[in-house]
Task: inverse folding
């Protein structure tokens, strides 16, 4: 309980720190910050199933695309504000996630099949987006720029920064609450040992269904945000590479933790952006550096930076406790 | 009719190559229980090595196999010792993360070295046509198919009838019991991994003249080999071959009949999804 | 021949065996006895290299083999028949036997060893191409022992060969061990079945809660009051 209070305070600190730096960021820095926070948000939503339940999903790009495309189509054809349209996109993503979950867990297929079947969906999704003229084909759909807060459009980039900052903080709160909840405990049990969880009476299908639909719906909201921020939504939003980046950034931070999905993107996105900007003629250098870094982090720390740091702190506390009890014993005898 | 037969044969040819690379994946999986998400990227490396051989040294891709296969073999051996051996007892999730990162590294290295442009490799067989009764086939894919089948049969024979193959099967079934019998398990695993990468070193130059090279080509190959591996039922030679042919044929036929044609690329994934719905245990698994 | 001194080992930092010492002299049959969970298998895993020792030394034929890789230990002639037999069930009898011939030291004698094993267990010659997964328990145990013999062991270690076998088949297996021992093989036999094991042994060690509780000549142990009460049900 006490730990949770401490964590809630830390979330508040993150939010205030975000507000504090926002004024001093340059135009390009604020863009990097928005993208980094957007990645953090996606990692956080992915982390619900990928992290807590240990079921690696590669379908997140599809969910993100569901959000971005649905809200944009509703805006263009029916003049529905994206603030409302984004929930329609979320619903669509949730239905897709439920179907995938059902295919996989009804037959108790091995964990890797879930990874593959979600990958299959993403690839089918990208190809569909590229080939559908209704969805704008390769070019995608454009959203005219305007200053109209009611339709989720702002000329001032800072507005997008505040929105995504708030979303990231809300996701932090949600993750903390989820980890302490019954459904969170069930998801973690599934990650540790699916068969054992089943024997203990956890309804694996229901738990993963709940987790992955929440994860998909929240991911879709992130899609609408990105479409509004860029004023365009195109098939690149649904590429497999996005799923790979989500997995890897979360992995570097610490899969299944509260802070890992925030830490990973905030460390990696700016680094990659700056490297790519400094070495424009060497396309791929930023990514190369970042991939090697990820392998090293994973092989050396195994569970990501946040998990590693938490372990170190715990070890140090244990050592301190042992030393204390020893000195007390010595004091008693001496 | 002519086009139909031709497309059919082309699909079978592609399917044979798919079966071979899925087989390489499957054998590694059987001894290490690691699924390598960079499998196809390693093949992409071999394809680009054929490009380098052709452009820089003027070697025909078929000749360059003599260089590329050993290079890939040793690279595979090192890669296993440095990266994969340290993850042998790690959970599946760690293996996925690390191999995904490896795939990312390979793709960005290829991007850095060769740019994102599509590239092609020419061989002595480029443009050569074989006339077989009513069907005329390009020679290059037929060669790729033949070599794939020969390598597959060779792998089968080595595994079934040699001391080394017996050790591979022993490690696959029970690595601890194998170690107690005096088998150097780590060495068997490294050799199997290296051989699989060496096989990619043969397959890469073989298909380089047929396919278009781009740095991200590996992803498709990885996924296709996963799909074939799962559809075939793990460790089932005939199943893997049948699954490879199914995927190859469906890809070829749908590119002929599907509208829009780009959607053909999605067909293997659709088949995979449908298969999981109706026969989750694979094609030939009883 | 085998000297175990002060071995401590366990899993995830929890010690299962503490300060265990044991000797096997050349041409002896030594049994290591104890109830389920006493730590017998843990000790054997340390001896055969499957588990790292946290403390202590294992010496074999004068050479320190502590924490050596399992295949290198087998290479030195210390060969274990694992608990539950652990055959390669998808391979034939002959393939299993040939796999036992993996140590380099034993390879030149492959044919002689195979002939010896097949003479010793004629039934295996009959079933040479049958998959071992389809054999009876007694036959599987023969394959397991045969596989170990194919590695030309200097010390044969058996981990609970009686598990899953009827008493009469167990007796047959033990008789075979006696024969092997007479022809010069040293044996370390790990068993729960105290009476039968002691009947074929020269010496015995009793392991209780991860430590040696008692050791001595087999005959003396069989007459020991505590053992009679605790293990022989007399």
Result:
């Amino acid at each position: 309980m006490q730990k949770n209070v401490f964590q809630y305070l830390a979330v508040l600190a993150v939010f205030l720190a975000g507000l504090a730096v926002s004024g001093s960021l340059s135009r390009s820095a604020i863009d990097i910050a928005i993208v980094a926070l957007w990645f953090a948000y996606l990692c956080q939503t992915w982390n619900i199933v990928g992290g807590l339940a240990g079921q690696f999903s590669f379908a997140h790009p599809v969910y993100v695309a569901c959000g971005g495309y649905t809200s944009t189509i509703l805006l263009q054809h029916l003049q529905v504000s994206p603030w409302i349209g984004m929930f329609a996109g979320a619903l669509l993503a949730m239905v897709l996630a439920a179907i995938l979950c059902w295919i996989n867990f009804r037959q108790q297929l091995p964990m890797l099949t879930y990874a593959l079947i979600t990958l299959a969906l993403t690839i089918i999704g990208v190809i569909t987006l590229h080939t559908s003229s209704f969805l704008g084909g390769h070019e995608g759909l454009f959203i005219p720029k305007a200053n109209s807060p009611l339709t989720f459009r702002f000329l001032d980039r800072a507005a997008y920064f505040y929105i995504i900052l708030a979303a990231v903080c809300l996701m932090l709160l949600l993750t903390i609450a989820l980890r302490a909840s019954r459904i969170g405990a069930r998801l973690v049990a599934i990650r540790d040992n699916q068969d054992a969880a089943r024997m203990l009476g956890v309804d694996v299908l229901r738990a993963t269904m709940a987790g992955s639909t929440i994860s998909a719906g929240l991911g879709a909201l992130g899609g609408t945000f990105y479409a509004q921020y860029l004023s365009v939504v195109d098939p690149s939003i649904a590429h497999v590479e996005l799923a790979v980046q989500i997995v890897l950034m979360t992995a570097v931070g610490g899969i299944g933790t509260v802070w890992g999905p925030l830490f990973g993107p905030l460390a990696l996105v700016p680094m990659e952006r700056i490297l790519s900007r400094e070495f424009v003629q060497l396309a791929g250098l930023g990514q190369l550096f970042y991939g090697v870094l990820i392998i090293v982090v994973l092989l050396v720390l195994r569970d990501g930076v946040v998990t590693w740091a938490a372990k170190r702190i715990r070890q140090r506390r244990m050592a301190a406790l042992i030393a204390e009890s020893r000195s007390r014993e010595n004091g008693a005898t001496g | 009719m002519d086009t139909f037969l031709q497309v059919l044969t082309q699909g079978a040819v592609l399917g044979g190559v798919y079966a071979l690379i899925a087989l390489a994946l499957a054998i590694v999986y059987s001894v290490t229980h690691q699924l390598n998400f960079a499998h196809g990227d390693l093949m992409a490396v071999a394809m680009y090595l054929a490009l380098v051989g052709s452009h820089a040294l003027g070697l025909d891709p078929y000749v360059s196999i003599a260089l590329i296969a050993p290079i890939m073999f040793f690279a595979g051996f090192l890669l296993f010792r440095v990266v994969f051996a340290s993850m042998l007892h790690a959970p599946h999730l760690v293996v996925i993360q690390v191999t995904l990162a490896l795939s990312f590294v390979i793709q960005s290295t290829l991007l850095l070295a060769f740019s994102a442009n599509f590239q092609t490799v020419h061989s002595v067989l480029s443009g050569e046509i074989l006339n077989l009764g009513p069907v005329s086939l390009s020679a290059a894919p037929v060669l790729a198919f033949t070599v794939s089948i020969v390598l597959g049969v060779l792998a089968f024979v080595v595994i079934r009838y040699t001391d080394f193959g017996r050790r591979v099967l022993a490690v696959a079934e029970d690595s601890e019991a194998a170690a107690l019998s005096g088998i150097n398990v780590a060495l068997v695993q490294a050799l199997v991994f290296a051989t699989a990468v060496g096989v990619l070193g043969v397959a890469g130059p073989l298909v380089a003249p047929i396919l278009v090279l781009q740095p991200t080509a590996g992803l498709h190959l990885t996924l296709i080999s996963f799909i074939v591996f799962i559809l075939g039922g793990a460790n089932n030679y005939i199943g893997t071959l049948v699954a490879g042919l199914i995927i190859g044929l469906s890809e070829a036929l749908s590119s002929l009949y599907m509208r829009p044609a780009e959607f053909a690329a999605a067909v293997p994934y659709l088949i995979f999804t449908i298969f999981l719905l109706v026969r989750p245990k694979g094609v030939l698994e009883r | 021949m085998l000297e175990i001194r002060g071995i401590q080992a366990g899993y995830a930092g929890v010690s299962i065996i503490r300060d265990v010492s044991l000797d096997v002299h050349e041409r002896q049959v030594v049994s290591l006895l104890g109830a389920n969970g006493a730590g017998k298998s843990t000790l054997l895993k340390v001896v055969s290299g499957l588990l790292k020792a946290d403390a202590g030394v294992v010496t074999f034929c004068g050479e320190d083999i502590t924490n050596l890789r399992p295949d290198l230990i087998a290479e030195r002639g210390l060969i274990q028949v694992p608990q539950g037999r652990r055959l390669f069930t998808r391979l034939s009898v002959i393939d299993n036997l040939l796999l036992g011939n993996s140590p380099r030291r034993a390879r030149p004698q492959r044919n002689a060893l195979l002939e010896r094993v097949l003479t010793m267990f004629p039934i295996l010659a009959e079933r040479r191409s049958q998959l071992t997964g389809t054999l009876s328990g007694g036959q599987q145990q023969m394959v397991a022992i045969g596989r170990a013999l194919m590695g030309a062991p200097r010390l044969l270690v058996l981990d609970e060969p009686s598990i899953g076998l009827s008493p009469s088949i167990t007796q047959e297996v033990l008789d075979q061990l006696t024969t092997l021992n007479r022809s010069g093989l040293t044996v370390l036999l790990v068993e729960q079945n105290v009476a039968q094991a002691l009947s074929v042994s020269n010496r015995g060690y009793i392991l209780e809660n991860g430590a040696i509780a008692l050791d001595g000549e087999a005959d003396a142990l069989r007459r020991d009051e505590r053992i009679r009460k605790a293990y022989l049900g007399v």
Observations:
- Residues 167-182 of chain C form the longest helix (16 residues).
- Chain C touches chain B at residues 48-50, 69-71, 74-75, 79-80, 82, 86-91, 95, 98-100, 102-103, 106, 147-148, 151 (CB under 8 Å).
- Chain C has ten helices and ten strands.
